[in-house]
Amino acid sequence: MDTSATDRLFDLHLQARTNMLQVVSALSLEQVNRIPQGLNNNVLWNAGHVIATSELLVYALSGHRTPSGKDFIDRYRKGSRPDGPASLAELDFIKAELLAGSQRLRHDYAALDWSGYTPYTTSFGVGFGTVEEALTFNNMHETLHLGAVLVLQRLV
């Protein structure tokens, strides 16, 4: 993938994360933790989930350590759900990591070896075999969850 195309991938990623951060930052701890009736997650879970999924799809499948660590990944990975209200410290971590993680990913893309990427097929039915394909899918996934957060924002 040429430099301008990868720069665009990272620009779009940062914009989605910036938009997510704006919504999360505008809500109280109580609001980001609230699970509307009939649903099984909340604003904070969606924000944490995009961080965890990005790290799994990009870092873990390339054989690299996930920056947020196993405990964080386990709390927010696909199939998880909030197991109680998150603390202010957890909220602060997620808010900081939304942008820091995007910036780290851009840096790491240039600094790390991604040639050992393990091909993967998502539950969405999309398969990919390179980190660039994973980055492209991840951007779509993050905007899907941004949409969920925008809906949840109206319900909390």
From TrEMBL:
All residue ranges annotated as the DinB-like domain in the record: 15-147
Which superkingdom? Bacteria
Q: Which Pfam families match?
A: DinB_2
Q: Which InterPro entries match?
A: DinB-like, DinB/YfiT-like
The protein, known as: DinB-like domain-containing protein
